[in-house]
Design a protein that fits this description.
- It catalyses: ATP-independent breakage of single-stranded DNA, followed by passage and rejoining.
- By secondary structure, the protein is of the alpha+beta class.
- The protein has 22 helices and 34 strands.
- 39% of the residues are buried.
- The structure holds one DNA strand.
DNA sequence: GCAAGGTC
């Protein structure tokens, strides 16, 4: 019997590597599965003594990502503090890839599942995402273990085969630690980000960011930049002095180095100066030494090293470099670009990789030379067991790669450099004394350029000096005292920042570039010349603000502590729940403290940014207070009412003007015209745009021009809502007759009038004598009136629940109709005049009739 | 609209 085995890798390229390594004779067929991204490779082989049909496929990273349920994603209605205790849901990380479906279909009929995900915590976590989708659809494996985990430390065929022979089980603890980290990151990141964003955007009109974000990785990343900027600002320059001696030999002037380097005392420097300046002073050579020195060939490239080099040598930002490297990887030019390993695995085919370059127009001959002379043994480094260092796979020209060629060129030259010899050079040092003070002149001559022949930036220039002999006297050409000042350090470069992040464990090889990009995008730092990161006033205010409130919010320790706690979970020394709860409780406290002390941060913002009021320009009238709303034209574009203390989100693109001074029929706000250069121009109501009426939440942010169906459905502004604390407007649903319904456009309270009976209602200019509310005019159909006769006009007060007959066209004279409020209770009709009620009980001239009030009468529902 | 982590 042939059993089926499903094997799953972390990404498509590894599935292919697996099939190549494990299928007998490299014979396998490939097809597309339910996911457009992940192929399925199939072959027949042996699985622990059974004949088996193998299906090798992959994920594309995580199947799921964590988020809040939709109801928690409304920034206006959810208090950020509640996020700490909010539930979370797992969503498909990329629904287009249809990964769950992919595993469900491939799992059918399989008895065994072998998980080949990357051997790190994230990989372990993805194992369980796969298990959740696959196992319920698999066939029984009898008494055998059904789910297996391959543990491999390299992707070399030998290692993969070894892993296949020694399968283990997935580690739930490691997986749990990832869930723990994800939940904490989500909750505290979102809580702080939402609070800060709303707080500062509600106060300032010229914040130059859409989002005032906080995160356990991005915030410490910013902290590094601000700390350096603080150091620069606090820097006090100090004077120091040098003795600059120029000697001459063979017609050449040579600048000598003073053995003391520099002194910080002016009198001392002058003293030496006086001694040396003596007319009789002589420079006598006391030593000439020559030493062979070498510059070591570089280490193999891992991600961080590549990003640093791309930044310093190519001027490419980490994010940009990462994208290029990914492209080159996907197109088969490079090995996987996300790796921490900077040493080649033992069985890495270095020869093959060099041979692949031997036909290249720029470095083909160099590669051939390397091959014929023999490759140098690469330097040792760290093997993290994830992926080999970043290495070119096949040769490519500028024509093939376009823009990305620069990066490819850098990586390939670097690769060739790692298997080239060291750069050897001869250092010559001539020591001489002038009245007992030591000086020297140095020269350098390259003996063997080694790797610098291919890695241009490593190139060294010769410094040739004439020959000197011990004991000889040299001519002193000039002596002077140099006065200098110590200089502050520079702003951090991208490369410096990457090093710091790596050192402090902020982010991963795959995410560091994103964190740096984030702080740029949020306008916390600006990229300056030499790819240096200068914090903006916003970035500085934020970091200094955190420091004043709670320094632990911003220092790298924040991340380190979380990681430490997650490690406890991964090592099985702690349970997920208590760890997550502990950390969240801690951060909840920090959050509360931050919120209560945010004024400290705000003090810093105050000096930098303009208040909403100062930044806005008056545009249109508020529907509630009839004063002018102001618009803040910079993003996020918003309007605000100073009097009502309310902010209205507005469309982010387009010029805003007043629209014919027309008012929104629903809420009386003056309409605003949004003029777009591209696309449509349209009028909107600030209120309806920000908070769509009648619960049309899903339409938030959409255009609410006057053609919107909701404006046709409702006859507006019947009167103000009668609910407590509601400023809404009661609007008549024009489609609802004859069972007329009146809805509040804000609190959504629904009222209805005279089920089945009323013909038409509208607002009048009369008010109720008792409560002062606007009275509605209610017109009944002839014959359908609860009253015996004809067509009546009445006015109704929604607040007092009363209806007044004001006029009748019947012959029965003046009627008065009153109703006792309450569902199911009787209403009474008292006809005054000469009417004749069917069941009239009153005497002459007075008629009484009772009728059961239908449910859904004239009271709140 | 938010975090950080995978990868496409």
């Amino acid at each position: 019997m042939v059993v089926s085995v499903l094997m799953v890798a972390e990404k498509p390229s590894i599935a292919q590597t697996l099939a190549d390594a494990l299928s007998p004779g490299h014979k396998y067929s490939s097809r597309t599965g339910a996911s457009p991204a992940c192929k399925v490779h199939e072959y027949e082989g042996d699985f622990y003594g059974q004949r088996a049909w193998f299906k090798v496929t992959s994920c594309a990273g995580h199947v799921y990502s964590i988020d809040f349920p939709p109801e928690y994603n409304n920034w206006d209605r959810v208090e950020p503090l509640t996020l700490f205790g909010a539930p979370t849901v797992k969503q498909e990380a990329n629904p287009k890839l249809r990964m769950p479906k992919h595993f469900q279909t491939e799992a059918k009929g399989c008895s065994y599942l072998v998980l080949w995900l990357d051997c790190d915590r994230e990989g372990e976590n993805i194992c369980f995402e796969v298990i959740d989708n696959a196992v319920p659809y698999m066939s029984s494996a009898g008494s055998q273990q059904q789910v297996w985990r391959a543990q491999f430390s390299s992707l070399a065929p030998v290692d993969l085969k070894k892993a296949m022979a020694t399968l283990g089980s997935p580690n739930k603890d490691m997986s749990d630690s990832v869930d723990a980290r994800a939940e904490m990151d989500l909750k505290l990141g979102c809580a702080f980000t939402r609070f800060q964003t709303k707080y500062f955007q509600g106060k300032y009109g010229d914040l130059d960011t859409n989002l005032v974000s906080y995160g356990p990785c991005q915030t410490p990343t910013l902290w590094f930049c601000v700390r350096r900027s603080d150091e620069i600002n606090a820097f006090q320059p100090e004077s120091f002095y040098t003795i600059d001696v120029t000697v001459a030999k063979a017609g050449r002037d040579l600048q000598a180095q003073w053995d003391r380097g520099q002194v910080f005392d002016m009198p001392i420097a002058s003293l030496f100066m006086n001694i040396i300046q003596d007319d009789n002073a002589k420079a006598v050579v006391n030593d000439v030494s020559q030493k062979e020195d070498r510059q070591a060939r570089p280490q193999a490239l891992n991600t961080v090293a590549m990003l640093k080099m791309a930044s310093t040598r190519l001027g490419l930002g980490p994010q940009q470099a990462m994208h290029m490297a990914e492209r080159l990887y996907l197109d088969g030019y490079l090995t996987y670009p996300r790796t921490e390993t900077n040493t080649y695995p033992k069985n890495f085919d270095l020869q093959g990789a060099v041979r692949a370059q031997s036909g290249h127009p720029a470095w083909g001959s160099y590669s051939q030379q390397l091959l014929s002379n023999g490759l140098a043994r690469p330097r040792e480094g760290v093997d993290m067991g994830d992926h080999p260092p970043i290495t070119p796979v096949r040769a490519a020209t500028e024509g093939q790669l376009g823009d990305a060629y620069r990066l490819y060129d850098m990586i390939t030259r670097h690769f060739l450099a790692t298997v080239s010899g060291d750069c050897k050079f001869l250092r010559t040092r001539v020591n001489f004394t002038i009245v007992g003070e030591g000086f020297s002149v140095s020269g350098r001559k390259v003996i063997d350029p080694g790797f610098t022949a291919i890695q241009r930036s490593g190139e060294m220039e010769d410094v040739i000096i004439p020959d000197f002999k011990k004991g000889e006297t040299i001519e002193i050409k000039r002596v002077s005292m140099g006065s200098h000042k110590t200089r502050p350090p520079s702003y951090l470069s991208e490369s410096d920042l990457l090093s710091l992040m790596e050192k402090h464990g902020i982010g991963t090889d795959a995410s560091m570039a994103t964190h740096i990009n984030n702080i740029c995008e949020r306008n916390y730092v600006k990229l300056a010349e030499g790819r240096r990161l200068i914090p903006t006033q916003l970035g500085i205010a934020l970091v200094h603000g955190y420091q004043m409130v709670d320094n632990e919010l911003v220092i790298p320790k924040v991340r380190a502590n979380m990681e430490k706690n997650c490690t406890l979970v991964a090592d099985g020394k702690a349970e997920v729940l208590p760890v997550v709860q502990h950390c969240l409780r801690l951060f909840r406290e920090k959050f509360i403290y931050y919120v209560t002390n945010v004024e400290l941060v705000d003090q810093l913002f105050e000096t930098i940014f303009k208040s909403l009021e100062a930044a806005g320009r008056p545009l249109s009238r508020c529907g509630d207070c009839q004063r002018y709303l102001s618009v803040v034209d910079r993003k996020p574009v918003r309007m605000f009412c100073k009097t009502c203390n309310r902010i209205f989100k507005m469309p982010q693109n387009g010029q805003m003007k007043l629209y014919k001074e027309l008012k929104c029929p629903l809420d009386n706000f003056e309409l605003v015209f949004v003029a777009n250069k591209v696309g449509k121009s349209y009028p909107i109501c600030p209120m309806c745009y920000d908070d769509p009426p009648f619960g049309a939440r899903e339409e938030q942010g959409k255009h609410w021009n006057l053609d919107h169906p909701i404006y046709k459905k409702y006859r507006p502004a019947v009167m103000s809502c009668i609910a407590d604390n509601c400023s809404g407007t009661l609007c008549l649903d024009v489609d609802s007759g004859p069972k007329w319904q009146i809805d509040c456009n804000v609190c959504l309270q629904q009222l209805s009038i005279f089920e089945d009976k009323a013909h038409k209602i509208k607002a009048t200019s009369d008010t109720c004598e008792e409560c002062g509310s606007v009275l509605l005019e209610v017109i009944f159909n002839k014959g359908k009136s609860p009253l015996p006769d004809g067509e009546l006009e009445r006015k109704a007060c929604l607040v007092c629940d009363e209806i007044f007959n004001t006029h009748t066209v019947s012959k029965t004279g003046k009627n008065f109709f009153r109703r006792n409020p309450g569902k199911g209770k009787d209403i009474q009709c008292i006809c005054q005049g000469k009417g004749k009620g069917k069941k009239g009980k009153g005497g002459k001239g007075k008629m009484r009739r009772t009728q059961r009030v239908p449910l859904g009468g004239l009271w709140r529902v």
